[in-house]
Amino acid sequence: MLKKKPIAIDLFCGVGGTTEGLNKAGFNIIGAIDNDNVAVDGFKLNHKHTNVLLADITKVKPKVFANKLGIRAGSLDLLAGCPPCQGFSRLKAKFSKVQSKDKRNDLVLEYIRFVKELKPKSILLENVPGLKTDRRFSKIKLELEKLGYNLDYGILDAANYGVPQRRKRFILIGSRIKKVKLSNTTRIKKTVSNAFAGMKKAGNSGDWMHDTLVEYRKDVLNIIKRIPKNGGSRSDLPYKYQLPSRKKQSKFNDVYSRMHWNKPAPTITGGCTSASKGRFIHPTENRAITLREAAILQGFRKSYKFPKNTNRQNLARLIGNAFPPQFTKAHAKVFIKY
Ligand SMILES: C[S@@+](CC[C@H](N)C(=O)[O-])C[C@H]1O[C@@H](n2cnc3c(N)ncnc32)[C@H](O)[C@@H]1O
């Protein structure tokens, strides 16, 4: 007889990175919520059996949503959530004194509201490292412990969990049933070379995500061509080719830099397909990485579908916002053991 899969809900599901990881860990994701229609379109293309609600979560009554999914409080195996994290990010914190007042930070409390009402057996909260030091975290931790959850949490690097990318994230897992421990790291780190192995040439692959290439201005292309292959950066070039900001010792040293074949990629952000937004130039070709390459470095399978009814910036944002599926899978698997 087929064993029934444990059931999960994914809050702030985006284009589906977390759901993809939960699915790979062995969960049946029965419901998901996000308020971004393009993200939800993308989610639906890949997770046809999940009931995804396009809504502002602050307006959703958890029990009404649970009813719609045919479950009662206490019967959900896992509630996963990845509230927006821009407000906590290190970069923002560095340049803005008002970072902890960012409204998006309060959405993490929406996740707690759902936990309180749905009483899932286990929880998985993903966020940026800044959450751990935010004043809200001590409140969140106390509330979850009061609700009876055994917790484990930490700031972990996705590169240590089979993702070909350095990406430090805060992960919290909890269970009302047992003591839990975050997953062990993998022994081998994946590199850009591992990730791009077997890919067809960009521009002529038959995959629109890999074929829509940026046309650079002549002067920009001239600079990109000169950047040393395999890990070089614009700061390696003669002074006249450097950015005005670089000349002033900018904090953004990585802009117009190439990835290294034999290292994990840098953190994939919403600007991941722009040479001017970070170390996003291909290791050897004279262009920034394509949308497909960005999605692969984020840990999405090569066949993952993205919506066509939007522009490149939006797609890069959805990819950059996603949680790498293998990262989620590693920690969600901890619960599957029960
Ligand atoms: C960090 S991303 C989640 C990424 C997702 N877990 C993935 O792996 O693709 C945060 C998500 O929260 C969504 N969001 C922001 N405000 C929201 C709100 N008020 N209600 C519902 N979703 C919201 C955003 O649209 C975004 O997709």
Task: Note the topology.
Blueprint: E1 7-11, H1 17-25, E2 28-34, H2 37-46, E3 51-54, H3 62-69, E4 78-81, H4 90-95, H5 107-118, E5 122-127, H6 130-133, H7 135-146, E6 150-157, E7 168-175, H8 192-196, H9 208-211, H10 218-226, H11 244-247, H12 291-297, H13 312-321, H14 325-336
Parallel strand pairs: 1-2, 1-4, 2-3, 4-5
Antiparallel strand pairs: 5-7, 6-7
Helix pairs in contact: 1-14, 5-7
The structure holds S-adenosylmethionine.
How do you describe this structure in short?
The protein has 338 residues and is α/β, with parallel strands linked by helices. It has helices at residues 17-25, 37-46, 62-69, 90-95, 107-118, 130-133, 135-146, 192-196, 208-211, 218-226, 244-247, 291-297, 312-321, 325-336; strands at 7-11, 28-34, 51-54, 78-81, 122-127, 150-157, 168-175. The protein has a seven-stranded mixed sheet with strand order 3-2-1-4-5-7-6, sandwiched between helices.
Task: Describe the protein's architecture and organization.
Helices cover 33% and strands 12% of the residues. The mean pLDDT is 91. Helix 2 links the parallel strand 2 and strand 3. It has 14 helices and seven strands. It is α/β, with parallel strands linked by helices. The longest helix has 12 residues. The chain folds into two domains: 195 residues, Rossmann fold (3-Layer(aba) Sandwich); 128 residues, DNA Methylase, Chain A, domain 2 (Alpha-Beta Complex). S-adenosylmethionine binds next to helix 1 and strand 2.
